[in-house]
Each structure stands twice: as C-alpha cells, then as structure tokens.
Amino acid sequence: MPETPPRAAHADHSFRHSYTKDKALLVRRLARIEGQVRGIARMTEREEYCVDILHQTAALRAAVDAVSILVLEDHVQGCVRTAAERGEADRYVDEVVDVVRRTLGRPVRGSKAAG
Description:
Layout: H1 23-45, H2 50-85, H3 89-103
C-alpha cells in the first residue's frame, strides 16, 4: 500500500481542506443521507416490499456517490493542486488513484489482488 501523504503537512494555518468551501452543502447532503438510512430501516421494520427497499438503497447509493464526487473534485482541485505547487504531487496523485480504485471496487495498485 502506498504511503499516505502526511496529514501533519497540513498543520500550517494557511492550509484549508478544499471541501471547506462546500462544507454547508456537504453537511446538508449527509443529513439527507442519514434520513434516507433511517427511512430504509423503518421500511425494513415494517416489512415493506423488497423492490421498494431496493429502490431506496439505489437512491442512497447515488446520494453517497454524489458526496464522494464532490469531495474528490474539491480534493483534486485544491489539495492536489496545492501539493503540485509544493512539488509533492506524486504522493497525492497516487492516493487519489487508490481511493478511486477502491470506490470502483478495483484492487489497489501494489496489493496482492492486483494482477
């Protein structure tokens, strides 16, 4: 597994995680996702029709994917760009590629499952 970029490198007070510009939007979306999960749990408790529950889990997955994409875009446009300006891009790019591969259910480079 590649070495994760050090979080301590962001300890300087000038650094802001790139998603902070979208923080309010992210928090709203996460609250909506939390509500979706509670709704699916209620549907399960009430023993509702399987297909209706599957529709809701598909909507939940889409909502989680939308949050992931927003954070990923912010990370690449902010954190990775800043790392590139500091000459540290390679480690951050490798980290992003590994996260995208995991998200897509693909083996991470360098893992035993990779062929």
